[in-house]
Amino acid sequence: MKHVYTTFACSLLIQLTLALTNAAAARANVVAWGQNVGGQSAMLPRLTNVVAIAPGLALKSDGSLLAWGNNYYGQTNIPPGLTNIAAISAATDFNVVLTSNGTVVAWGDNLTAETNVPPGLTNVRAISAADFLILALKGDGTVVAWGSDNGWGELDVPATLNNVIAVCSGGDHAFALRSNGTIVGWGANYAGQLDLPSGLANVVAIADCLALKADGTVVAWGSGEFTPTNVPPGLSNVQAIAVGAYSALALKADGTVVAWGTDTFGDTEVPVGLTHVTAIAAGGQYQSLALNDGTPAIITQPTNVTVYSGRTAVFDFRAAGASPLTYYLQFNGAEVAQSIDSPPSLANVQPVNAGVYDVVVSNASGALTSSNVTLTVVNSGPIITRQPASQTVLPGWNAGLSLGTSGSLPASYQWRLNGTAIPGATASALALTNVQFAQGGVYSVALTNAFGSVTSTGAVLTVTPGFALEWQSGSLLPPAGVTNIVSLAAGGAFGLAVKADGTVVAWGDNTYGQTTVPTVRSNDVYLPAITNAIAVAGGFYHTLVLKADGTVLAWGAGTHNADYPPDYGQSSVPAGLSNVVSIAAGGYFSLALKTDGRVVGWGDSRFGQTTPPPDLSNVVSIAAGSFAAAALRTDGTVVAWGNNNSGQTNPPAGLSNVVAIAAGVQYFLALKSDGTIAAWGKTSSTSTPVTVPAGLRDVVGIAGSGDVSLALKSDGTVVAWGNLTTVDWQFEPSVLWPAASNVVSIAAAGNISLGLVSSRPQRITLIQPSMAQGTFNVSLPTASGRVYQLQFKDTLDDSNWSSLPLVPGNGQLQTFVDPTPFGAQRYYRVLRW
């Protein structure tokens, strides 16, 4: 088994008091460097009053916590009400804290019982956490261990161990420091972890396979495969030590930090100018941390910049220090620009601005100058880095054409349709609203500046009619002549559609009024009462409509037939329900997804189907079966709840990378990012486990009913499987239905299945991204019935994206805004479900 190292918060029972005055504590700053895939080493929020640190955790003087970094297992979700913290420790995927009353709280990944704190554990004075193993030092000098038993005996604390003043977990081995200055180790020894140097004594602190002696020197042991044993020669005057994945830190008496080991991600590259350090920490994800008094430190030096004339040169580098930090950009020793809490930039650069620059970062505690950086300014004609993309829309939809450019500024733009200049179309992007057939054609744009001109390739805008196609042999066909449909849904035995003008069309079974769309009387003419619908959903006997303002309308069972058993209040929308981005209708219940990623349910709750799990959050899509519900989270996992008589609330173990979900009567389907489908539960008539045709791939949409499932492929064709032998179905099992082509979306429920026919689905086209006053906004045409989310991250090597509130598509051009000010750069993407 490969040994895993993580954070080693090895605390002394008799701890040294941090040398921080109240004023210094108020300025205390967390400085992080090394790997940043989970944001664990990002430029942190300006923290104050910090007295202790662990990777991804900061303990403040008032006993409260701050958390950041990777949150895949919820490790940054601090338990509500957690206060009076006395000590902290962090592993790769979970956190452990000690409260002032001697109890322990743990949260995050619990795959191997790491967060299962032993019942009744009290009188704890110190803690240490590493992957798989947690140690607690009690006030009586004894040690308690829990977590995973990997077979190395790491949970078998020596029976005679006592008089312990510090503990250190190594994942599958452990150390205890006794009051007489000696160390006791137990657990795995395959890398010499337990081969303590002969005569090792006078130890005052321990980290994994490292010991700090009373004379300020450091001793290391082991093979060096996992622990950095190459202690720098002459290292002395050390006050604290920490060990990460393959590196180590030492805090010296003069407040400086020394690092050694493997520099995989820069984790041993101590920031320039880092002084007045009072605490250190290191983690298993190749990151290092220090707590200082707020004096500026440069984490990453700026690099040479080459930019085209007229554009903005950003002198980007990472620094840390107490806020506010002021950055002064100097050219030949003279200040030319400054900014607060973000690296400076120089706008509209010209060849005269080329030369050697440096940056001074300053705050109330001091100042530090960066290394020199050379700015090169190039004159160039316009350059197209991304050509306009062809797209297909339905009449009434919006379309947007844009391109990526570089080269010198200023540049002028002229958009053309079929070679003819479009009057007024001189912006960098072209937004088209309420597109009609005459606007179809080939679009291009000509760019010109003082140094030349260039014309883009042609992008074809295709405008095509859309109509609903029903696959059933009965009489439940869509009303004749219904076109310009932008969103579909199916109920128990009825169909629903939203048109481009925001009106709703319904057909089929109307026993309980589910297809009676509300109207208003005007001059003896009955007009649609709903003109701003963006999505519809159908249950067994009721209809839901999502409006563009985020509210929900409902009718059918529960409104027309109050005395009939189907009335469980499924059409009684909760008072005040707003900010809704998506809806789902189950057998006798309804669900709504809000912009904050929470789910609201109402109606039949005999199986708890209207009550989502209390910790359910970050939801981006919902589905409702007859008596069960499911939610897709932003991390690609699925949660299900409600009736489980057919196993429908038990998603397959390890199911991940899901991008869409759909519900049958007693089963669920999940579409994965690789174009394959996962299924669980049973069919309603045969009670056999639901399956997926072997080899089915390239799927972009899914739908389920009682016994039949549908998959929409990327080429616009449809695959159907299940019980297709009844008279209601016009195709054989697992065979592409010949008439089903150019389909862009599908829906199914009960004994009805629908497809929306067009050329291809609307693409996400970003229009006019811009930054103003430190905030970012971008526009894009949205499709009704879809959910969108703007996400961002500050570095490309960060694997996690931060999410802004969900936004419902309304068939119009919408603007997405990130209102949070940021530094020199931020990366964005838009997701659609």
Largest sheet: 6 strands, mixed
* Strand-residue proportion: 35-45%
List segments where confidence is low: pLDDT < 50 over at least 5 consecutive residues.
1-25, 467-477, 560-565, 725-740
Distance between the termini: 40 Å
Rg, Å, rounded: 31 Å
For the residues shown, what is the average pLDDT?
83
Main structural class? mainly beta
**Individual helix count:** 1
Helix content: under 10%
The counted number of beta strands is: 71
Shape: flat
List strands and helices in order, with pairings.
Layout: H1 22-27, E1 29-34, E2 50-54, E3 57-60, E4 65-67, E5 85-90, E6 94-99, E7 104-108, E8 124-130, E9 133-138, E10 143-147, E11 164-169, E12 173-178, E13 183-187, E14 203-207, E15 210-213, E16 218-220, E17 238-243, E18 247-252, E19 257-261, E20 277-283, E21 287-292, E22 297-300, E23 305-308, E24 313-314, E25 318-320, E26 326-331, E27 334-340, E28 345-346, E29 355-363, E30 366-369, E31 373-378, E32 383-386, E33 391-393, E34 399-401, E35 404-406, E36 412-417, E37 420-421, E38 430-432, E39 441-449, E40 452-455, E41 459-463, E42 467-470, E43 485-490, E44 494-499, E45 504-508, E46 519-522, E47 525-528, E48 533-538, E49 542-547, E50 552-556, E51 580-585, E52 589-594, E53 599-603, E54 619-624, E55 628-633, E56 638-642, E57 658-663, E58 667-672, E59 677-681, E60 699-704, E61 708-713, E62 718-722, E63 743-749, E64 752-757, E65 767-772, E66 775-781, E67 787-793, E68 802-803, E69 807-808, E70 813-818, E71 827-832
Parallel strand pairs: 23-31, 33-41
Antiparallel strand pairs: 1-21, 2-3, 3-4, 5-6, 6-7, 8-9, 9-10, 11-12, 12-13, 14-15, 15-16, 17-18, 18-19, 20-21, 22-25, 24-28, 26-27, 26-29, 29-30, 29-31, 32-35, 34-38, 36-37, 36-39, 39-40, 39-41, 42-64, 43-44, 44-45, 46-47, 48-49, 49-50, 51-52, 52-53, 54-55, 55-56, 57-58, 58-59, 60-61, 61-62, ...
